[in-house]
Prior knowledge:
By secondary structure, this protein is α/β, with parallel strands linked by helices. It contains 9 helices and 6 strands, in the order H-E-H-E-H-H-E-H-H-E-H-H-E-H-E.
Amino acid sequence: MLFDKCRYVVVEGPIGAGKTSLAHRLARHVGAATLLEKPDENPFLARFYQDPSRYALATQLFFLFQRGTEVRDLAQMDLFRRSTVADYLFDKDPLFARLNLNDEEFALYQQIYRTLQLQAPVPDLVIYLQAAPETLVERVRRRAQPYESGISDSYLLRLAQSYSDFFYHYDAAPVLIVNNEYLNFVDGDEDFNLLLTRIEDMRGPREFFSRG
């Protein structure tokens, strides 16, 4: 069974990849707790998408402290008695900072991040969801979240590339890279069961799964 060997699973991917939906379904399937991003609680996010240079630092620091508190609490729990599925990887947080902050802001961010990073547990498995940038743009536009209304297509494209670069080098935990361009984990039982089987069959630290 999945959570016999993976007590802490992270689902990651750029905006529109479907990470939160998959995290919810995985958690329901095995009766695990969820640890989810809460973008609607960030009072700076909508303003950031309208005026990035002005609100980038405040937006990033709010998320950093929010996520840092959550993973600190997770680390203090008995992780081996309660399984958890998260829709974000704390180690990925600098990806957004490097993309959005100027050099002086990023230096400040790094000082704070290094302090919080020491408290973050390492996942047993990271599921990294990929899709074509054009697909991500279409999904974000379709779901029409109010705080995402100011996101530009160019920002989503740069973000997708940043994720690709990040996971090319990431080796702190086993990674299953999933191209979900033609997979439906929310409504499709067949696709979801295929994913579960693929996870169970993992033998190496980095493997791939796609369909199409």
